[in-house]
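Supplementary Note 3. Input sequence used for the single-chain structure prediction.
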Amino acid sequence: MPLNKFCFRVASLCTALKKVFSASKSFSSAKMNSFRSSVWDPLELVSQMICMQTVFYTAESAALIVYSLTGFTPTLAHIFTAKALREMVVVQFIASVACGVALRYVVQRAKQCLDFSCTIHAFHLLFVIIFNHAIPTNLLWWAVQIGSIAQNGDIALVEDRTPIFCERLSWYMPV
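The predicted structure, written as discrete structure tokens, is reproduced below.
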């Protein structure tokens, strides 16, 4: 299944989850004081976070499965390692690309994409600490996480950087 179809299905799953949660919600949310017309919905945020975390670990697992065709034997410890193994650096950046694409469809707000990217990696850090019983001390591991966060945010913002075509003037005006 192509990646954008997968992201579309994940986004539609999150939309369905939102409809289920909002239909069963017994409290009313107050509107935020901003230009947004939507209502602040904590259940939507939680479902988006769960969805993005699922995309992250699904992409990492899929990349590990593909990498295992070369003779590499992946384990759960590879996903939650506190070291920057060569294989896992590549896998992490592949998962980061998948998350960056999925962020555009799931979050749908460019300003929140970097926040969600940081949240994904904060939860990953928490899971790594729980799995290894220690905070990662490898500087390359931290560099990979920061690079993945930046890559996620950059991929998610690509659509906002597209030029706006002005038909009357027939020239491109940067955003």
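Residues 24-37 have pLDDT under 50 and may be disordered. The longest strand covers residues 164-166.
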